[in-house]
Write a structure and sequence with these properties.
- By secondary structure, the chain is an alpha/beta fold.
- Helices cover about 50% and strands about 10% of the residues.
- The chain contains 14 helices and five strands.
- A five-stranded mixed β-sheet has the order 2-1-3-4-5.
- A hairpin with a 4-residue loop joins strand 4 and strand 5.
- The radius of gyration is 23 Å and the shape is globular.
- The two termini are about 45 Å apart.
Length: about 270
């Protein structure tokens, strides 16, 4: 980072230090080392240090209030939170601001590893998603992968329309592919809202199958089956309804899918492990 910053021309560093640019830090709360570095490289001057953004200040105030509440409820909360994380769950969900993973699952910080993106996708070619999955399975040893969609999903709604959405459109094309795959079933649903809900559910199912298709999951399931008699991580498809707050598990028999298509997607022979 230091070498990267030093490559900035002085004119650009002056612009970044302008109070008109939304590049603000609470300098007084930084460590002395960070503070010294930022000032030496012209990221801050007296004007930027005194410049305040009420919106961000409110967030920082909210954080302090939250800290006090947590300490009041549990004096050891942050001591426990500062310990190494050992979550049992990986949550793959949508970036929609109405669907916060910890809250809808009723879990505390540190109990669920979270990956979110537009439309709760798990493309097997997306390095970001695959890195999260590998870290969760190999390094955290999670036991359950929860793929969660939600009704009233903007990504699903847009995938049913005819519009060029740029980069977002490229991303939700995965949902269009799910639509194509189940076109005969979806064409039988005449009500537009019901069709969206159906596609939300079908998309979750396909993303669960995408999780299974990965080598890291298949290998871990074979290893744990051999060691404990049960295969982990287990994969669960769920849908959240923001209008009522209920999270429901989809009644899907993934073993049926695996038996039907396993000869195509299996990367390991269980008998060889």
């Amino acid at each position: 980072f230091i070498m990267f910053v030093r490559q900035f021309p002085s004119s650009l560093r002056v612009v970044l230090s302008s109070p008109q640019v939304p590049f603000q830090f609470q300098v007084r709360q930084l460590s002395e080392l960070s503070r010294k570095f930022l000032i030496e490289h012209d990221f801050f001057n007296e004007e930027t240090e005194s410049f305040a953004d009420p919106t961000i200040d409110n967030l920082l105030a909210n954080n302090k209030d939250w800290v006090e509440r947590m300490r009041k409820d549990n004096p050891n909360f942050f001591e426990e939170l500062g310990s190494p994380q050992k979550p049992k769950f990986l949550y793959i969900g949508c970036s929609d601001s109405r669907v916060p993973a910890n809250q809808i699952l009723g879990l505390k910080p540190g109990e669920v590893f979270v990956h979110r993106n537009v439309g709760n996708q798990m493309p097997t070619s997306d390095v970001n998603s695959l890195a999260v999955l590998e870290f969760a399975v190999e390094h955290l040893g999670i036991q359950h992968i929860i793929v969660t969609g939600h009704y009233d999903c903007g990504a699903v709604a847009e995938s049913l329309g005819c519009q060029d959405l740029g980069i977002v459109g490229c991303w939700i094309r995965h949902i269009r592919d799910v639509h194509r795959q189940y076109i005969d079933d979806l064409n039988k649903v005449e009500d537009p809202e019901k069709k969206k809900r159906c596609l939300v559910e079908l998309n979750v199912i396909e993303q669960c199958l995408n999780v299974y298709k990965t080598g890291v999951v298949q290998k871990k399931r074979i290893e744990t089956k051999k060691e404990t008699g049960r295969a982990f991580p287990r994969i669960h498809g769920m849908v959240f309804d923001p209008k009522v707050g209920i999270l429901e598990k989809l009644p899907v028999n993934f073993n049926h899918y695996i038996k039907k298509h396993g000869y195509i997607y299996n990367l390991y022979d269980p008998k060889s492990h």
